[in-house]
Amino acid sequence: MNGGEDFGPWLARQLQRANMKQADLADRVGLTRAAVSAWITGRAVPRDETMRAIADVFGAEYATMHTRATDVADSGRPVSWYHRPAYLDGGRDFGNAATFAFDADVEVLAREATQNSLDERLDRNNPVRVRYTIHELTGEALARFREAIRWDDLFPHFEAAAAQEQKVGRVIAEGLRDMYERDRLVLLRVDDYNASGLTGDDYEDGRFAAVVRRQLDSRKSDVSAGGSYGLGKATLWATSRLGMVLINSTLSEPHEGRTERRLVGRLDLPWRVVDGEPFAGPAWFGEPDTAPGSEGVSRSWWADQETVRQLYLTRESSAPGTSFLIVGAHDVASKAADPVQDADEVGDEETVQAMHERLVDALGRNFWAAMTAGRSTTPILEASVRTLRNGHVVIDEERVDPYRVQPSRTRALKAYLDGETVDRLTETGQVAHARVPLTVPSQRGQRGAVEHEAVLLVTAAEDGDGKPNQVVMMRGNRMVIREARVPDLPLGTNPFQAVLLAGQAAGEHAPHAEEAEAFLRASEPPEHDKWGQTDELRAVYSTGAHRRIREFTSAAYRSVRELVGRSQVKSKDGPRALRDLLRLDVGPSPVSRGGGAPTIRGLDAELDVSGAWRVRAEVRLPAGQDPWLLSPVAKFDVRSGARPSVGWSEVVAGQNCELVGDKLLFKAGARTASFSAVTDASTHPVRGELAGLIVELEKARGAVE
Known about the structure:
Elements: H1 7-17, H2 22-29, H3 33-41, H4 48-58, H5 64-67, E1 80-85, H6 106-119, E2 128-138, H7 139-148, H8 151-162, H9 167-182, E3 184-193, H10 207-212, H11 234-238, E4 240-250, E5 262-268, E6 272-274, E7 277-288, E8 298-299, E9 301-302, H12 305-310, E10 321-329, H13 339-367, E11 381-389, E12 392-399, H14 402-405, H15 407-417, E13 431-440, E14 450-460, E15 470-474, E16 482-485, E17 496-501, H16 513-522, H17 535-540, H18 545-564, H19 576-579, E18 582-585, E19 599-607, E20 613-620, E21 628-637, E22 645-646, E23 648-653, E24 657-660, E25 663-666, E26 672-679, E27 692-699
Parallel strand pairs: 2-11, 15-17, 18-27
Antiparallel strand pairs: 1-7, 2-3, 3-10, 4-5, 4-10, 5-7, 5-9, 6-7, 7-8, 11-12, 13-14, 14-17, 15-16, 19-20, 20-26, 21-22, 21-25, 21-27, 23-26, 24-25
Helix pairs in contact: 1-3, 2-3, 6-13, 8-9
């Protein structure tokens, strides 16, 4: 018995689809019911002449009995929408709560959906390929698509949901208005290749049920997986104004003897009443089930190529993976979120173009490291975006290039992958690396912490990376978890970028990488955008585990400072390098303070994208019980002549001081204080990068005596 699916389960399904009992088949082939039961349970197989008789019963080719690559019994029930009946106890859900864990934002979608694709990478020697397709339908193309999804059957449910005065209902009403008034519908498709696909049964444990039927079920056992809450998939439905996602999956493991074109749809609506009948919320698009206990429930079906084409779900190859089609996609963070503005001001093409650009930007910023390859290593991700209208190209497919979106950081990671890092930066273009210890605490009920060595990379910053002097942190799947400015840098530090690789991202030989992966994964919230205290961390690990993360990040900051510059030299007059940049001109005071004048403890300054200087100063105050009223003054350092003053666009009081008008009043009795300020670029006599900045604290008129 050669073939994909075992004969017994295959035969049992054909009987269900044909609404036929075992006794009926036994009568028609001239055998006993016990013989049919033995075939179905796998205790026996029919003889060749009996196989021919079974094929005649189902009207199938004889070869089909051996290949079992398709269903031969037609259920006679076309695909349709099944709407979950209302709860018998009167409970009502006015939407899927999981969708509110994230914003309806294509940047969030790109982060969560791509992370899920990375977690399902099949062949570890090749990258996962992810492609986003924005497809705007209008006119006849839109009408044909609505027919394919049985829109006439759905409309009463949408109408009832939109009439409700609650959040989900208002979003649906906006989606209907956009489609009917403007005769347009935006589809956003996410395809992945070299991924597992939605394997498993329609209802039992498995990837399919976890995505299509369940919430808070991640089904991820790999410790390097990015997701852990089972919430990321909700971004697909959150990005749809209509709450609808259609799915086509090519499986890495056969189900029912097949792997290609497994289709299903899911619709998330609030509780509603249609034609006097209440419905709970979700609905599924598929073939009505005939199995006992699931009669009438829509389950996945194996679609033909024409159906897949009509639903805009055709995949470009037979490589395993899944295609998610978000119906009625919108982006609250771009112009696409405002249909009135789109129609009157920017037009449809710019709407989809804005969505296209935001997707490219989000993929580059979050996954540049996953797309970086070494000389002898492949990337773990390839990503691209394209935009269509009614099947015609609006924007060609654009592959995201990590060297273009993050040049310095990509250079740093490639140097590490190629073994070309140095211990200290001495020339432009070099990449320095250091080891940063992470103490992984023991889990509750176990003994013994272990020490993992993460990898820190530092290199000179280029303009394309964005803000300089940042460190980005990541683990196994190389998605950016956190980006933070390195504090307390020595004055005059050249602009740099730093990358912290923890867990399995540190390399296959990093000690205790798996333990670090599990620990850091447990410390991430559903957004996976930081490491810190979480309920899971508190429940799984020993008391105080979150302190290990603080120690880890502090150690990383120290290592960065050691690689990029010397420690500050302290003196009673403040750091020598700062005295030319921050002068304290407090002048004589008729009242003896008995402790001298304020001195500088630290100064941090950088030019922002507008050309303004952003300054943060820490001031040491002399001993005494008197307050100080001082005016911060900014001047440009020039080679000759008077130093021109520039204005402040903003002054913000920090620790132990307050803003009094445009002056700073330092608290009486305090020994340290801080403030920050931003210069007004419009008052600069020359561009900020062409001159040094001097900050003086001058005694204000009317100072407290």
